[in-house]
Amino acid sequence: MRMLKLVILPLIISSMITGVAALDSEVSGRIGLRAVIYYFSTTIIAVILGIILVMTIKPGVSQTAEHIDRAGTTPNVTTVDTLLDLIRNMFPENLVQACFQQYKTKRKELDPPKVSTNATTIPPLATTLMAVVENITKEYKIVGTYSNGINVLGLIVFCVAFGLVIGKMGEKGRILLEFFDALNEATMRLVQIIMWFV
């Protein structure tokens, strides 16, 4: 399995660039439109199916509060952060880094500021209310970090754009196209050898 993981990166890069560069712009536009329509239709079907299954199965209803394992911590990440991370990962700032890391937003909880109070100036009810508000209100700082793993989305976006540019270059891009075609062929032969070995 480790040997197959070894050839994933050169296989993705070489096959995407070679495949996109070989297409003419009309065909690639139609194929791209069909791919987007297919992606959105399958996503909508999956969402509808998920809602129907949740309504019929009702997962988690049979569990009581004392049977739930609460040992782990849940990350404080919103849907907006996740969507923005997806867009950020589409356009990595460094291609070499995208080969082994991807961007991830985390929220770091800040310590609340300590308010110095005097018991003679603040009535007891106000002190209790301040303690409640202090316990409820939490402030977070958004921190961008990188986690281990190939940023496949960013590499695919770059390879598609690079393949389109090579395809439009005509005769000048032929050398690059032949290089990536040879790289793709060599990678496919490596995959065949690995499959026979495993």
TrEMBL record:
Membrane association type: Multi-pass membrane protein
Pfam families to which the protein is assigned, alphabetical: SDF
GO MF, one annotated term: glutamate:sodium symporter activity
Protein location: Cell membrane; Membrane
Gene3D superfamilies: Sodium:dicarboxylate symporter (1.10.3860.10)
Signal peptide: 1-22
InterPro entries per the UniProt record, alphabetical: DAACS, Na-dicarboxylate_symporter, Na:dicarbo_symporter_sf
Keywords, comma-separated and alphabetical: Amino-acid transport, Cell membrane, Membrane, Metal-binding, Phosphoprotein, Signal, Sodium, Symport, Transmembrane, Transmembrane helix, Transport
Protein's UniProt keywords contain Repeat: no
Superkingdom: Eukaryota
Main location class: membrane
Segments traversing the membrane: 38-57, 145-166
The keyword Magnesium appears for this protein: no
Any single GO CC term annotated in Swiss-Prot or TrEMBL for this entry: plasma membrane
Membership in a protein family: Belongs to the dicarboxylate/amino acid:cation symporter (DAACS) (TC 2.A.23) family.
PANTHER family according to UniProt: EXCITATORY AMINO ACID TRANSPORTER 3 (PTHR11958:SF109), SODIUM/DICARBOXYLATE SYMPORTER-RELATED (PTHR11958)
Descriptive protein name: Amino acid transporter
Gene that encodes it: Slc1a1_1
